[in-house]
Amino acid sequence: MTRQSYATEIRIIRLMCTGRVDLAFVLHAFQKGADGVIVGGCWPGECNYVTEGNYDALANTYVLKRLLGRIGVCPGRVRLEWMSAAEGARFAEVMSDFADRLRELGPLGEGEGLSGESLRVGLEALRRLVPWLKLVEREKLRVPERTVEAYRAFFEGEAADRVFSGLIAEKVDESRILLLLEEEPLSTREIAERLSLTPAEVAKHMRNASRQALVRYDRRRNRYAPAGAGQAAP
Predict the structure, then answer these.
(1) Which residue range(s) make up the domain with 211?
(2) SS3 of 145, please?
(3) pLDDT digits (tens, 9 = 90+) for 208-221
(4) Is 97 part of a structural domain of the chain?
């Protein structure tokens, strides 16, 4: 299917507040084949509830974009837009623009040049990390001031970048590796090729995982396997 002939189907799911849009919901949509997810929320300062959940949605969008980028998926497949129930014309314009953008990107994974395995493993790794990611967000990615400008400055700043490029990136890569090993024992080179990592990066993760007793090394086959797996056949 060429990008010119690529058809886009838009499904709309209504929730009472964008603050209820969990990270897992968006990842589940991608795992079920969605090529993009758009969240439409109340304008900042005009929340229909006292929770101001639109700021929670804003934080989740920043987090999701970085997570998707880490596994090779275009961050532009997730979008957050402010609009009120009275802005029908704006809604139609935003949805049309987003559909056009998805047609440019092409089908999920295929548009990025990812293999089906790499996409599947990446999305599942992120889904499994959602509870841990919520803790990290609460402890290390909390924005003290609820304004759009404050959220942008924080999530595009050095402090957040250190968390994403260090702690979160390492956890995501480790989770992807462990998922691959659940399916079959693999060598460092094979893991690196399947996940587009360098052998040095994989070796570092394997050392950390070995210290945590998460993996073992099968010397007979020169492969890594989950620590709880049975001994590989000779």
Answers:
(1) 184-226
(2) coil
(3) 999 999 999 988 88
(4) yes
